[in-house]
Amino acid sequence: MSTPVNVAVIYYSSTGTIARIARAIAEDAERAGARVRLRRAAELAPQAAIDSNPAWAENVRATADIPEVSPDDMVWADAVVFGSPTRYGNVAAQLKQFIDTLGGLWQSGQLADKVYSGFTASSTAHGGQESTLLALYNTVHHFGGILVAPGYTDPSKFVDGNPYGTSHVSGQGDIPVGEQTLTAARVQAERVVRITRALKAGLGSAD
């Protein structure tokens, strides 16, 4: 019997690109045999700002059924996959705010020894994808987490070209998530589940 693996996919998305990738990673992780929680970070923007962008307003409606993330989701997870659009080459404030609430769990060591990975999107190819993921991964080091990036571990990674994590160029929201991004999501999800399962099995046998 294979070792059970809990994967939390925790993301923030404004206009829906990251939400689409998050769903894909959650579905791929489930297909790989993991138990999955898909969770969204709470929105901080005022309603007027949301209503001013039809895509943003539509994404809020379309994802209303997805539970907001809580610290318990971090405790439950063996692996956490964070998703955020780039914000000036950094993590979106909504996801960062959630991460900033985890001080108590960090101090008690409950964030350590878990697998972490990340994904992102930007308007342009050089719009901060790598710096956003690297900024996110700085947090993983502080957690004492185990970073599992996709690397160039699958032939498809030489096509999408991003070893740091799944990423998508969305333009002004007019470039939908396509097969290249969905393939990257699958490769990353399967790798996260596989490595997490191996680590859990190894730690269990060492007890």
Which structural class should the secondary elements be placed in? alpha/beta
**How many beta-strand runs?**
7
Topology as H/E string?
EHEHHHEEHHEHEHEH
Note the gap between the termini: 18 Å
Low-pLDDT residue spans: none
Largest sheet: 7 strands, mixed
Helix content: 40-55%
Number of helices: 9
Shape: globular
Strand content: 15-25%
Rg over alpha carbons: 16 Å
Q: Provide the residue-averaged pLDDT.
A: 95
Fold and architecture overview:
Belongs to the WrbA family. The protein has 207 residues and is α/β, with parallel strands linked by helices. The chain has helices spanning 17-31, 47-51, 54-62, 71-76, 93-100, 103-107, 129-143, 157-160, 179-206, and strands at 6-11, 35-40, 79-87, 90-91, 115-122, 146-147, 166-169. It has nine helices and seven strands. Strands 1, 2, 3, 4, 5, 6 and 7 form a seven-stranded mixed β-sheet that branches.
